[in-house]
Fold:
Amino acid sequence: MKGLSIQNIESGYADKIVINGLSLDVEGKETLIIMGPSGSGKSTLLLTILGIIPPGKGRIFLNDRDITNTSIEEHCIGYLPQDYGLFTHLNVMENVSYGLRIRGIPKNEREKKSIEMLKLVELENYKEKRIKELSGGEKQRVGLARALAIEPCLLLLDEPLSNIDQVTKSDIAKQLKELFNKIHIPVILVTHNHEDAIFLAGRIAILIDGKIEQIGNIGEIMRYPKTPFIKKLLTPFVFE
Amino acid sequence: MRSKNLIIILYILSILLLFFSISTFLYQYIAALGSLKKVLPAFGNSRILSALWLSLLSAFVTTFLAIIFGIPLAYILATREFKGKTLFEAFAIDVPQTFPPVAEGVIFLLMLGPDSPFHVNIAFTFASLVIAKFFISCPFVVSFTVRRFREIRNSGINLTARSLGANRFQVFTTIYLPLSLKDIAAGVSLCWSRAMGELGGSLVFAGVIPFKTEIIPTFIGEQVKTFTIEVLAATILATTASTLALVSFKYFTTSGD
Structure:
């Protein structure tokens, strides 16, 4: 299967199992939003896919390759953490080309690829800028350009709109959606905020206590929530 | 009105403390000015120059070893979890800093002296000078570096780097080290400064052999009984070298902020 296939995984920490028997498929160039309350296991799931937390049980396949027990640097998964994880000792260009430099790609090739990525996120004039000179939205785009420069098979985003102010959130969400349409890989992003999920729209998986309770498009789930808790999660301000 | 008076008292207390520190540092130069004709030739005293050279050389070797051993230890302490880590860290960082230096010298003398159970006798040599200084000074490099490495690890950017394809060693060289340079420099400055001023351990383990193991602090310790002008010259050399190290420490830790 082209894309990500998670089969019955169990994952967590030494003293606690957080993800319990979870299965999930994300195909082609689909964008899947994983939404759940704090402590539901969203970040644990992301870190398990990424290879930071090895699953106790189950298998993870990426483009039919079993990546369950391979090390994180072999996964080729683009990852954008909540705070964007930019390297403050490097400028924008050096950040974007970091993964290419690590792979030993010659300087002229990695510069060409990095400029291409910066054009993709509309920051081609920012290559010499220091990280501290960037706004929150610009930092996010640099993080995305860096994650995409390694030509990943999958893109993971952790709470991509949580550090964006309310005024620019819809613009950033629109830019993100446009970007997802341009790249032809599956995207998984996690959020605890129902507004962010609505902004980003797409297929949504509701994660509660380490299990997927409901999966479908946002409209469907809002109209037909499987449980009162899901209804409350998606419409927290509706008076009963 | 009452709060204004309290603020004035705070200012007076601060100024008194500043005056105490600065006047102590400056008084050696003032004292030297009073007998400049005698002090200046003392700077050229071959025994003082030898003690200064041995002080500088042993402090540099100590600092070099502290970097070579201290940074890997800091990396392990900051990035690995293992049983007894807290205790291990206390022995690596806290215990040497609070250990009575003379007692440290006695232990080294018993362990690596003429009666060594390991049949290794390096007492009263340059190596013993370095070992005595290393024990006391290396924790500065470890403690400053481990604190910064922990901050980096907690920020999670090490994992971001790994997701981009970097292996652990590449993360160490391209993320941990460059992002910690200021803190390592601060630790190194203090390590060198501490190594320059170390007395107790060196006195017991390396002894005071002129032109062989005599360093500025042990020279002062020996000569102070008769208080010659050479003591003042050696004091000026030792404190000026230490102060220069601390100024560099301040420069590295505050520049670019």
